[in-house]
Design a protein that fits this description.
The chain is of the alpha/beta class. It folds into 2 domains: about 130 residues, Rossmann fold (3-Layer(aba) Sandwich), CATH 3.40.50; about 150 residues, Rossmann fold, CATH 3.40.50.
Length: about 350
């Protein structure tokens, strides 16, 4: 009788060993936002069986939150339009837009709202870097992938940044100014973007680098117009009253260059100086048409990155592709000699 009990115990133990080994060796694998993989042991054999056998349901739709710095700039209106157009390719994407109206507090609230909505991905073009950094980090740390467009935030709490190199653009414009004025040099006015934005600083720094090869160039006035055409008109009106000789006006974006031109035209001095900006929009009211019409003399292309943001969001959310930390978009000069060709190249009419 004892021998039978012993045999039964051995047999039972033998049958249980594979089950116990399976339960002890099972694990759950998770991947963090930065791509690191961690492995945690499963609590019980029953939990492991459920996790292993039940396939994770695929999402059929994704909510994208787009936080725009402001819609007072035509370039940003174009960015939103390109995002909306690109999203049409993906029926599983729904994009919700928020306009911060150049107000940091409003943009912070917009992002907080997107976090509450549990959006699947956040696209943001920050009004300013420092004030928006904390809330962008909050979204990122909560598990929401973040793509920043155009302007950066501080630190690296984002999934991907997409934008052109503003220093390169500024340097290209500075080089154009130096070459256009030649050895004799001349007087230059700089109409700058919003103070505290990365684009404003980087375009200024690049511009100063570009003109330093010509010691006879003098920047006789440099004032902020916050990227806005109407503000540039009033700023330029004041500069005109204080300066009798101006050779070139550089607007950090095309609307400010156009605003400066309007002020100069109204003063009857438009034949005295040249105008250059940055954006290069092919829209009916964009700078390529302005160059063709003779208001602006040149601009540098500043791509919005809207299409790239949506395409990369789809790669991440649907295809599971890990995104590069940074995408640098290209630029090129547009002037009176190539404006017609550039209009066609960028889809204008």
């Amino acid at each position: 009788m004892k021998m039978k009990k012993f045999q039964t115990l051995v047999l039972t133990t033998f049958l249980l060993v594979p089950t116990l080994l399976t339960a002890c060796s099972s694990s759950t694998t998770t991947t963090s936002k930065d791509g690191a993989v961690s492995v945690a042991p499963a609590a019980t054999a029953k939990v492991e069986a459920t996790a292993t056998n039940a396939p994770k349901p695929k999402k059929s739709s994704f909510l994208i939150g787009m936080s725009q710095a402001n819609l007072g700039e035509p370039w940003r209106v174009t960015m939103n339009a390109q995002i909306a157009e690109a999203a049409k390719k993906y029926p599983d994407f729904k994009v919700v837009f928020a306009d911060a109206a150049q107000d940091n507090s409003k943009q912070i609230a917009d992002v907080e709202n997107f976090i509450q909505q549990k959006v699947d991905l956040l696209i943001i073009s920050p009004n300013e870097a420092k004030p928006l950094t904390a809330v962008v980090k909050k979204a990122y740390d909560s598990g929401i992938p973040v793509i920043t467009l155009d302007r950066r935030v501080e630190g690296d709490a984002f999934t991907q940044h997409i934008g052109a190199d503003n220093v390169v653009i500024g340097k290209g414009i500075g080089t154009w100014v130096a070459k256009t004025l030649g050895d004799k040099g001349g007087n230059v006015v700089e109409i700058k973007g919003l103070e505290g934005t990365s684009g404003q600083k980087e375009r200024h720094d690049g511009f100063m680098e570009g003109i330093k090869s010509n010691p006879n160039i003098k920047v006789i006035a440099a004032q902020n117009a916050d990227w806005l055409r109407d503000k540039a008109i009033s700023v330029m009106e004041g500069i005109l009253q204080a300066n009798k000789k101006i050779d070139i006006v550089f607007g950090h974006n095309d609307p400010m260059a156009e605003g400066a031109y309007t002020a100069v035209k109204n003063a009857g001095r438009d034949k005295e100086m040249l105008f250059i900006g940055a954006d290069g929009l092919p829209t009916p009211d964009g700078s390529i048409k302005s160059i063709i019409a003779g208001r602006l003399n040149a601009t540098y292309v500043y791509p919005t990155g809207g299409q790239e943001a949506i395409d990369n969001a789809h790669k991440l959310l649907v295809d599971g592709v890990k995104l590069e930390k940074q995408i640098v978009l290209g630029t090129e000069e547009i002037n009176k000699d190539n404006a017609e060709a550039m209009l066609k190249k960028y889809g204008g009419q």
